[in-house]
UniProtKB/TrEMBL annotation:
It holds the Pfam family UDPGT. This is Glycosyltransferase. One of its GO terms (cellular component) is cytoplasm. It comes from Lactuca sativa. Belongs to the UDP-glycosyltransferase family. Keywords: Glycosyltransferase, Transferase. Its EC number is 2.4.1.-. One of its GO terms (molecular function) is quercetin 7-O-glucosyltransferase activity.
Length: 479
């Protein structure tokens, strides 16, 4: 299938609006780059603070406009003294972003053909209705996690959530089997996204999820960052609800396949990260044996207590395996990060600590034999793409669902208990890097890697879905 060719005057203009978070921006920016290569004008909208952070990490010219691709900004509506508060951001997305976005669109020189909004930006659906333009939602989660979010109104209607009180978090209620959701075979309530653990019906995150689920019910075009073979059962369950589903992952490999050498070189300089990466860790990895290093990264938003950090630290150190550990400055809640001297000595001998890193390069390094992860979807699909098995410590949001997929469905990982005990971390790290189960999981992960390569190659399912997506957007501009 070839992309429709149109003259430059009739090129469609798509406005991309990511949720203001690292993994969402990275994923949507890659899709925007792909569609730009398909002859589509792109306006990519970030909050002002995230735009500035991208410039800090990528350099002052990393977001310069280029023919047919421009960056624009809107405020985040958060007072300076509350900036960084995730709940304040959720509130502002629901109350302020629609007005900011419509003001921006009114100033754009090129008429908007279509809006592609993050599934976590429900205001974009209202904006498209106001502007009378088509809209698509891009869910940067797995299809299963998206399907879990979509169920929120149904779970409320069946009085399964919110929980009656906090005792329901520990009394076995979360083990309730949900057998009425198509595509989910005997899933437990606890395996659905984190909103099911809410006890307060006025909780900000809980109501944010409900608004996102309601917005999704208004549209018919869904883009999901997955591929068909990975989640075929759930995707089949989605088909009767959404007439147009585009599974287009993993985007990184699609970019490599679709852009030519000159374009690859040009896009390599573009920033996808809100934090400055520390490439020195790659030099450290270079000196290690194949499959000998455990890579540890809990993503851009997960937080933990100082005690949990120490339990992870001692468990990893006592495994006696080499480790690359990404520790963000804000990883520990309200405390500075201090390791005891004995643990520092082990870290100096066996480990490398950085505040951020080029994760895709790290995961594809031959020395990396396992990934201790929070189960964010961006990290998960990057690990599958690299053929790396995982240890899972899900935090919130979509992560419990993805953990279930990793461990139960795809059999490429093992879960660490929520309370975090150093003995368990040590045992599972040893098993993942050097044990028989780890060996079998590595074989499984390599099988998924091969399937991903097929899906993103010419005539693969994801490759063809990107072609179809681009064609359908071009058709919008001819109507």
């Amino acid at each position: 299938m070839e992309t429709v060719l149109v003259n430059s005057e009739s090129k469609p203009h798509v406005v991309f609006v990511p949720c203001p978070a690292q993994s969402h921006i990275k994923c949507m920016l890659k899709l925007a780059r792909l569609l730009h290569l398909k002859g589509i004008h792109i306006t990519f909208v970030n909050t002002e603070i995230n735009h500035n952070n991208l410039l800090k990490s990528g350099g002052p010219h990393s977001l310069d406009d280029e023919p047919g691709f421009q960056f624009k900004t809107i405020p985040d509506g958060i007072p300076d003294d509350l900036r960084g508060d995730r709940l304040e951001l959720s509130k502002s997305i629901l109350t302020n972003f629609l007005g900011y976005f419509l003001d921006l669109v009114a100033r754009l020189e090129i008429p908007v053909t279509c809006i592609i909004g993050d599934g976590m930006t429900p205001f974009t659906v209202d904006a498209a209705e106001t502007l009378k333009v088509p809209t698509m939602q891009f869910w940067t989660f797995s299809a299963s996690a998206f399907w879990g979010y979509y169920q929120a109104p149904n779970l409320i209607e069946k009085k399964l959530i919110p929980l009656k009180d906090e005792s329901y978090l520990t009394n076995g209620y979360l083990d309730t089997i949900i057998d009425w959701i198509p595509g989910f075979e005997a899933i437990r309530l606890k395996d659905l996204p984190g909103y099911v653990r809410t006890t307060n019906p006025n909780d900000v995150d809980y109501n944010f999820v409900i608004e996102c689920a309601k917005a999704t019910r208004k549209i018919s075009n869904i883009i999901i960052h997955t591929f068909e073979d990975l989640e075929s059962t759930v995707i089949k369950a989605l088909n009767p609800i959404f007439p147009h589903i585009y599974t287009i992952g993993p985007l990184e490999l699609l970019l490599k396949h679709i852009q030519n050498e000159q374009e690859t070189k040009k896009l390599d300089n573009k920033s996808y990260s809100l934090w400055k990466e520390e490439p020195e860790c790659l030099n450290w990895l270079q000196s290690k044996e194949p499959n000998s290093v455990i890579y540890v990264n809990f993503g851009s938003l997960a937080v933990m207590s100082s005690q949990q950090l120490l339990e992870f630290g001692w468990g990893i150190a006592n495994s006696n395996h080499y480790f690359l550990w990404i520790i963000r400055p804000n990883l520990v809640v309200g405390e500075s990060i201090v390791f005891p001297q004995e643990l520092k000595e082990i870290i100096n001998k066996k480990g490398f600590i950085a505040s951020w890193c080029p994760q895709e390069e790290v995961l594809n390094h031959p020395s990396v034999g396992g990934f201790l992860t929070h189960c964010g979807w961006g990290s998960t699909i990057e690990s599958l793409t690299a053929g790396v098995p995982m240890l899972c410590w899900p935090f919130l949001w979509d992560q419990p669902t993805i953990c279930r997929q990793i461990c139960k469905e795809w059999k490429v990982g093992m879960e660490i208990g929520e309370s975090v005990k150093r003995d368990e971390v040590e045992k599972l790290t040893k098993e993942l890097i050097g044990g028989e189960m780890g060996k079998q999981m590595r074989i499984k992960a390599m099988e998924w890697k091969k399937k991903i390569e097929i899906a993103t190659s010419s005539n693969g399912s994801s490759f063809l879905n990107v072609e179809k997506l681009a064609n359908d957007i071009h058709m919008f501009s001819t109507k």
